[in-house]
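To close the section, here is one more complete example, presented without commentary so you can practise reading it yourself. The ligand is 2-(butylsulfanyl)adenosine.
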Amino acid sequence: MATDAPDSQQQENQTEQRADALRTRIREADRAYYEQDNPIISDAEYDELMRELRALEEANPALVTPDSPTQAVSGAPAAGFAKVRHRTPMLSLANARAPEELLAWRDRAARVLPQAVFRYVCEPKIDGLSMNLTYDHGELVLGATRGDGLVGEDVTANVRTIKDIPHRLNADGGAPIPDIVEVRGEIYMRHSDFEALNQRLADEAEQAGTTPRLFANARNSAAGSLRQKDPQITVSRPLSFLAYHMGALEGADEPATQADLLGYLRAWGFPVSPLATRVETIEEAQAYADQRAAARFDLGYDIDGAVIKIDDRWQQQELGSVGRDPRWAIAYKFAPAEGNTKLLGINVSVGRTGALTPIASLAPLKLGGVTITSAQLFNEDEVRRKDLRIGDTVVVQRHGDVIPGIVKAMVELRDGTEQPWTFPTNCPVCDTPVVRAEGGAVTYCPNLQCPARHLENVIHFAAVMDIRGLGEAIAERLVGSALIHDVADLYHLTKEQLLTLPGFQEKSAENLLRSIETSKRQPFERVLCAIGIRFVGEKAAESLAQGFRSADALLNATEEEISALPGVGPKIAHSVYEWLQVDTHRQFIEKLKAAGLRMEVTDDGSAARDGLPFSGQTFLLTGSLSQLTRGQAEQAIKALGGKIAPSVTKSLDHLVVGDAPGSKVAKAEKLGVPTRTEDWLVEQLREHGAMPEKRERLS
Ligand code: IVH
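Output:
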């Protein structure tokens, strides 16, 4: 009817707008997850968005667009990896979430095989990525992700870098080597490895002066590490593997039971879960699941349930599958580690680059054995999108061992006393109005002298400019005493001033002043890297220096000119350009120039570098060093004119091997690259006066 038309039209428009908004959000989340390995929303939220979009599209089929995220198979191969068909489909598992559901599963199987007596094998359900490994006459020939179950991605090169995965099946373990076998299992990351990786990424970003992109949890970390285009990156990521199943098997007898199957996998050299257990009854299987649920956070890696499998493989075959789910196995999923608590407040922290990060302060909540008092909120948009209000009861979820996230506010529990929260317009530490780059998600404090940024800035500056003796402790004293307001003030320090600080004596004061003075000889590109512009690391700084030759030219550059430089993408260009438009930053550059730093490319700068003892030589470090930290070693090598290579190639001059080295050593030996001991390096550094005095951070 005519009178209805505007209303239904309006409603349709609203639905369309909502579907559009959902798609945009899902795509953003996909991009962050898959391309940047840096999720911006929790898995639960992602599922919620997809559910809503699916429901909208189902109710309004005309709204479906061919490129809608609902139309793509989840986990579909990313561009860049070849697609491969599995020899036998990779099945998934039906879920049970309560004891009755487990009993119902057993009863369904009993109806198909009424005479059978079932025994069960119970295993942890590892929360990683399933992997299909094909061995041809014992030789690893293919590693493929699950994909849609029929077709996955060929990630063989990356899989070969995982130490748990044998390149050749062990023939001496007592299990025959088949002509063809598909070994299936899970790639995952242990919590300790995940934390160490995030720490390393943070350290590297700090060294490079960029914002660290950390993984939100071990599963994302494993997925992101496996889907790297460059196997060299995968090899540097600590991935683990557990085998639990077989697909195609040719030229050997099928194992008679699941327990035997696990025995074969073990004999061939695969890690198999030590927690896999055979039980006689479904009650024992239930007890196993309960036990695993109670201890799930003590394992050192993430599991999200228990898998109960009927042990007899003849029975398995008889039972077959319903769709993609075998009748002979079920995943008993743990209740999510989720709880409700009060949102007490939102604190905003300021990092070295000035980025402001909101963190939720929560009333203490026990979740999976730990007490949680804070949760991650990512950025301003996230808080707004969730419409979080102080005093809200919020749903908190714990994913594995990481900082928990807030799923949503329980709007239905509001009583009107909740206070809306707005992102601060001024820096919570120094009160300078904050800025937010157009199109960017990050808000930051532009004040270089902001105390929150100041200390970290000084430490970073000293590291990049190679100012010996200016480590964390001294930087703290200098900043605390207000002797320096920005790093340019370092160049005006006097011995008398230093002697007023605790711990300084004539000699140490003179030494520090000397290394500050020496740092003035650092080339322009170093200065550009040291001043801490977001996203400007060594490579970008070099490109900027080469491209503009002087700070003056750079100050007058347009954003287009900056982004035209090799190795400087639009993101870096935008960040540099924006930074240069801020008055205090321009004054700071002038101050550095006045202090006598090199603010242009000088030919004697590079000439001087050419004459250094390590000029023209490349180095790479592997394993842990005992007499200096890796950062110190790299710094010292660079100070002597050497370069740090990203990976082992034929042209590498020295591979310095510390304790517990990785696979780089074998590669170097294969390519004929000389390997050196830590003592050799230390001797070289001593000889050229570049050995740091002591390890900065003892672990
Ligand atoms: S058996 C036909 N065993 O769970 C049965 N799966 O939800 C194939 N998973 O895609 C799987 N731990 O990635 C099996 N011990 C385990 C497992 C396990 C984790 C994963 C696997 C599968 C998913 C199904």
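Once you have examined the tokens, check your reading against these statements. Residues 91-93, 123, 125-126, 130, 146, 186, 244-245, 307, 326, 329, 331 surround 2-(butylsulfanyl)adenosine (CB under 6 Å). The mean pLDDT is 86.
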